[in-house]
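> example.struct
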């Protein structure tokens, strides 16, 4: 089941924090619960993606994205992701999730999230997200203008650029 109560809690906590700019990083802390683990007594790989929502959505509130979406009648969708798992996370361990917007192209915004256990990274994900309206994808310049950061267009890390290039070579629809 989706962790609606935990999401509400993290969103409430974020609402009490000061707003941040699109250039900043949002951090939150999550304790792994019994419903988060798999049969090997570690954090389930699919649940990791869900727990990243607990950082990503409050980040959106703090940078003003959710307010802009409501004002403009926009939607938000994930258009791709690449995840790397490196360390086990077990029941009741505490992890810190960081969320950073690392750049954009004409259609998509790219977010990087990392889960940390102490000073050790356990997993990392890059998301390609799109703002949508009734006509389809909203250009990211329109989003940047609405958020008050019209000049926000940093050069993305090389590994993110490589991922984008690799995605552009992928068959669609898939052949198998």
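> example.seq
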């Amino acid at each position: 089941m989706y962790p609606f109560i935990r999401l509400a809690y993290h969103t409430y906590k974020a609402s009490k924090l000061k707003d941040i700019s699109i250039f900043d990083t949002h951090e939150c802390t999550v304790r792994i619960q019994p419903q988060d683990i798999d049969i090997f007594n570690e954090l389930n790989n699919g649940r990791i993606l869900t727990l990243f929502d607990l950082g990503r959505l409050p980040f959106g509130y703090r940078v003003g994205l959710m307010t802009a979406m409501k004002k403009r009648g926009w939607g938000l969708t994930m258009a791709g992701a690449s995840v790397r798992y490196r360390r086990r996370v077990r029941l009741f361990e505490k992890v810190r999730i960081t969320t950073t917007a690392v750049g954009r192209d004409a259609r998509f915004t790219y977010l990087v999230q990392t889960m940390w256990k102490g000073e050790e990274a356990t997993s990392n994900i890059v998301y390609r997200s799109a703002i949508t309206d009734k006509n389809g994808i909203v250009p990211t310049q329109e989003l940047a203008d609405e958020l008050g950061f019209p000049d926000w267009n940093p050069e993305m890390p090389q590994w993110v650029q490589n991922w984008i290039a690799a995605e552009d070579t992928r068959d669609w629809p898939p052949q198998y």
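> remarks
The radius of gyration is 17 Å.
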